[in-house]
Predict the 3D structure of the following.
Amino acid sequence: MSAPPAEGLVQQWESEQTRLRQQVLDHDTEDWQKSPVFSGLERVGGVDLSFIKGDDTRACAQLVVLSYPDLKLLYEDSRMVTLTAPYVAGFLAFRETPFLLEALQRLQQKQPRLQPQVVFVDGNGLFHHREFGLACHLGVLSGLPCVGVAKNLLQVQGVFKSEEHQSQIAALQKGGDSFPLTSASGKVLGKALRSSDKSFKPVYVSVGHRISLDAAVRLTLSCCRYRVPEPIRQLLGSGCLSGCSVCGIWLLSLLRQR
């Protein structure tokens, strides 16, 4: 088990989150976001850092870019990385963002015409302890519109896995139904979305950067063939996950859990 981080490091991270949080734009900034059918959107990206089970330092940093609206694979990048920053709840982005940014930068250098117009992040955005999750962090530093889509509920700011929450999930009758994730102060931080008629478990959508919550939810739904939007779901089959023996073991373990 790694040693706990120094108090000074956590304070530094809190200060950095506060500074960057002021740069988040939680409204639509592109014309395609305001279109009912996202006219003008041609490329959607997905990023994730997938850990080896039992190893909290080695991971596979992944990026895919898909065409929109047909969701065909245009580009993929996977690289094994070694994380040096300690894990601290609420500060995940300080461990993961540098490697995801590097993947986007490699794409810009190799095939700039395939740069995504929006990036789906396997994690949270404004639905976070300090309203600055991984999707916000990556969005601000990359300058790209980002959407956070989490598979599990982060219990923060008065949002819990309560009986009321379970009742709200049960009331989602079909794909596209949603309900707001409202903090104790009354602020809507995201939405729980039933993303497919075939999936009873919702995903949790929140703004990362340069997009409104309404557009983020609509876009997530439009990119879902199953429960998880394709730019994230297709990461499971990309790059070193299928070509590396270490990642192959991890992938089999993950698939058994799904």
